[in-house]
Amino acid sequence: MPRKPRLRSGSGVTLHEIGLAAGVSAITVSRALNSPERVSEALRNKILETVDRLGYVPNRSARSLASARSRTILVLVPSLTNTVFIDTLVGVEEVLRVAGYQMLIGNTHYSASEELQLLRAYLEHQPDGILVTGLSQPPEFGAILEKLGIPAVYMMDLTDDGRLCVGFSQEEAGAAITAHLLARGYRRIAFMGAQLDERVLKRLEGYRATLHAAQLYDAKLEFLDPSPSSMQMGAEALERLLREHPDCDAVFCCNDDLAIGAIAQCHRLGLAVPDRVAIAGFNDLQPAAWTTPALTTVATPRNRIGAEAARLLLERIAGLVISAPRQDLGFAVVARGSS
Amino acid sequence: MPRKPRLRSGSGVTLHEIGLAAGVSAITVSRALNSPERVSEALRNKILETVDRLGYVPNRSARSLASARSRTILVLVPSLTNTVFIDTLVGVEEVLRVAGYQMLIGNTHYSASEELQLLRAYLEHQPDGILVTGLSQPPEFGAILEKLGIPAVYMMDLTDDGRLCVGFSQEEAGAAITAHLLARGYRRIAFMGAQLDERVLKRLEGYRATLHAAQLYDAKLEFLDPSPSSMQMGAEALERLLREHPDCDAVFCCNDDLAIGAIAQCHRLGLAVPDRVAIAGFNDLQPAAWTTPALTTVATPRNRIGAEAARLLLERIAGLVISAPRQDLGFAVVARGSS
DNA sequence: TTGTAAGCGTTATCAA
DNA sequence: TTGATAACGCTTACAA
User: Fold this and answer.
1) Chain A residue with minimal CA distance to B11?
2) Nearest nt to A11, CA vs C1'?
3) What architecture (CATH level 2) is domain A72-168+303-330?
4) How many CA atoms lie within 13 A of A23 on its CB side?
5) Would the Cβ of B38 be found within 7 angstroms of any atom in strand D?
6) Partner A contacted by B214 (CB < 8 A)
7) How confident is the model over B26-70, as pLDDT tens digits?
């Protein structure tokens, strides 16, 4: 005599009940749904019909608990308001969805400590794998993944230290756009950087190296602000830059937002772009093509980075041999009117 | 004699093991963590110390299964690349996170059928509640929620049919910006609409009603395209509009993207904004303030909508009495240089 | 090909 | 205040 009925969750229909209705055992129903080839066709059809009729909805918690696999991937991004990472997430989602995996999104707000905290919090979900933005997590981060044996793929940048990564060289990209400005004849090229996360700093390194090589580097032309990027900041920084260094003839902004603000400010100040000052951005977001003049920038394969990273992670989880642990998806300088 | 050790998931440390190490039962450990006031202080401290020392990570699947509560909220949005919904998600996340709830994001791609499909798919997670964008889901949608008793809050728009909703009147907002253009003296005001989702159509209704009232309505001034919105579309539509209707003196674009493309195209065509043609957008995204001239638009409280909707849903889940099932968060016409 | 039994880690129930 | 026991719904291991 059963004694303790408990609160049921969800639709209330269980594998066991489907089995009763179809005249088979629960495990056969499970097999009919998850490995159909292991159940005779007649039985399978009968079961699937019953599943449909009763509106059975599998319980993912029970499944995770029994199988020790959550089919869940944690994705950590520095920001949700920055389109760059949204594009990446969209790429991730497209791949995971098809594979039956669930994406959990953690917003680190560009903070290493929040990133660690989020990782710990999301561990409750027993993620089967993790997608991380950038390479510079605190040491505990890697230690936790190591200890729990959770596979990870690092997005947006490249490394040779053995970690799986999908991205492009931030430093080379910074160098390339700087070289483009040099090639166009600009000589007093400033750098405008916000947030100063690892990617911005690498672009800065590329900028420095290129100008050094051309013997045109001048530290005074670097505008660096650790606060979050905005068009407002781009506008203010441009004004200050030109006031303090009137001979500045070009600005490499670390992202399109700053660049859009800078161009707008040029309009307000009555300065011709690119004749008085050239402006270049980074990322090639949609608005970059619609400023006046259109913005020269660096196109980055954000969507593909997300998709490829997800694919790589799933391969890793499936235990496949990873032929290319380091996927360089490249970038492209897009020359438009602003330079 | 135990016979079947199975694969363990996660960190491997369980409540039971913490209990063993601390000399108490598993259930006491559970209580120490979840309702500390029900465990004596001495024991509690000892337990918490052990939890820390062994690095215990709760297993959310087991918890959901046993408690019949997933602490998970499904959030359905039409798009992830549209900043409007990202802002909403950020508001949702801020509230859910603090409350210990997990957010599952479903991207419907503006499709009713995908929306239904996503709902079905995410039912596996036994969500405790759902946040939905818009009011016009297919009938089965409501039927499923009803049948399973899943509470829902509808975002971005308002209704009086009893559903919980948080938003503002899309129609009134469309009317308000149209009235603004009228007040500035424009008489041949066009409407430019993309995507044609329910919100755009309601803004269109507001536009029509206002122009009808002023006896200035002209159906030929409506540009409607069901394909996704883009700056490109705004540029092309503006050119066509002015070619076919040279007397058009203002355009209400259903969103800022179209408006930004339209303004850019005016620059390319050498048309003065707003003297030759005024442009107004909708949403007040960041770039709206940085076009030349700056864009007149309608500011919408997206972040607050997300946060309030989440709060309302949590109250509903907690079984609290809902005093205001309909929360009108309003909007504001932001008059800038483009009109 | 199908079924039985046990176990996944947690919480609800009831008892002490 | 603490604990024993069963139950949540599913899948693994093993047997038929």
Assistant:
1) A148
2) D9
3) 3-Layer(aba) Sandwich (3.40)
4) 4
5) yes
6) no
7) 999 999 999 999 889 889 999 999 999 999 999 999 999 999 899
